[in-house]
Amino acid sequence: MKKHLKTIFAFAMAATMIFAAAGCGSSPEPTSDEQNVQSTEGEEEAEAPSESGDTLIMATNAEFPPYEFYEGGDVVGIDVEIARAVAESMGKELHVEDMAFDSIIPALLSEKADIGAAGMTVTEDRKASVDFTDTYVKASQVIIVKADNTEITGADSVEGKVIGVQLGTTGDLYASDVTDTVERYNKGFEAVQALSQGKIDAVIIDDQVAKALAADNADVKVLDEPFTEEEYAIAVKKDNTELVEQINTALKELKESGKLQEIVDKYITAE
Ligand code: GLN
């Protein structure tokens, strides 16, 4: 009997280990280095943190350097620092939730997060579901091609090509306007990787992110001619006027004191 129990126990242990290993293997994100960040990717039910009064929950997609990316176990970057300064001015502590970019607006609507700060471009479409604060940075969409590509030189010559984008972004939107063959990736990094492997012809993505991704990949180059001009703002659930006003006041202070520029300069070196 005792021996039998021992066998069952050993079997259970082995099964647990196999499941744990399988879980690790399929995990899409770094696991050991996420102490300060909760990833909601793949999780069904996150607690409703926006109800805790002293925390400001920021939904983001930490695959977007230099605005949000992992450094060790922490999500850092321009948006994180701006959001932290905003939270501080409201007497709150910032908590970052990392998720897929196209989950950010749903997270605001379901009140799992208070703010979406993710290099998010203000668009009329998005304004139909969320409110935006004042803008805090100007950006553009640019084209990345293979370093030796002489055929694609700008917006006109990318028409009809196989274009890689990050799912649900403005790059996705613009690419869909100029070609029927859009390859959508969860991470901009994956699109650039596919480009350097010759699987796609070009990537359309935000300018600073393009530069950051291209800096790590000698096989690709960023074209000078911008595809669009756009502006980033923080998104909040509709009709949350008080929160928008609080954030706008904080953003104004950050702009006037030069702190916002200081944060940007810390991550983006002027050309
Ligand atoms: N600025 C782009 C957008 O709003 C991309 C943002 C992102 O991928 N984090 O769609």
Topology:
Blueprint: H1 2-26, E1 38-39, E2 55-60, E3 63-64, E4 68-71, E5 74-76, H2 78-89, E6 93-98, H3 104-109, E7 115-116, H4 124-127, E8 130-146, E9 163-166, H5 170-178, E10 182-185, H6 188-196, E11 202-206, H7 207-215, E12 220-222, E13 228-237, H8 241-257, H9 259-267
Parallel strand pairs: 1-6, 2-6, 2-7, 9-10, 9-11
Antiparallel strand pairs: 3-4, 4-5, 7-13, 8-11, 8-12, 8-13
Bound molecules: glutamine (GLN).
List keywords for this structure.
271 residues; 10-stranded mixed sheet; 3-stranded antiparallel sheet; single chain; D-Maltodextrin-Binding Protein, domain 2; alpha/beta; 13 strands; binds glutamine
Protein architecture, described:
With 271 residues, the protein is an alpha/beta fold. The chain has two domains: 52-136 and 233-267, Periplasmic binding protein-like II (D-Maltodextrin-Binding Protein, domain 2, 3-Layer(aba) Sandwich); 140-230, D-Maltodextrin-Binding Protein, domain 2. 37% of the residues lie in helices and 25% in strands. The chain contains nine helices and 13 strands. It has helices at residues 2-26, 78-89, 104-109, 124-127, 170-178, 188-196, 207-215, 241-257, 259-267, and strands spanning 38-39, 55-60, 63-64, 68-71, 74-76, 93-98, 115-116, 130-146, 163-166, 182-185, 202-206, 220-222, 228-237. The strands form two sheets. Strands 1, 2, 6, 7, 8, 9, 10, 11, 12 and 13 form a ten-stranded mixed sheet that branches. The protein has a three-stranded antiparallel sheet with strand order 3-4-5. Strand 4 and strand 5 (74-76) form a beta hairpin. Helix 2 packs across helix 8 (241-257). Residues 61, 64, 101, 118-121, 166, 169-170, 206 line the site of glutamine.
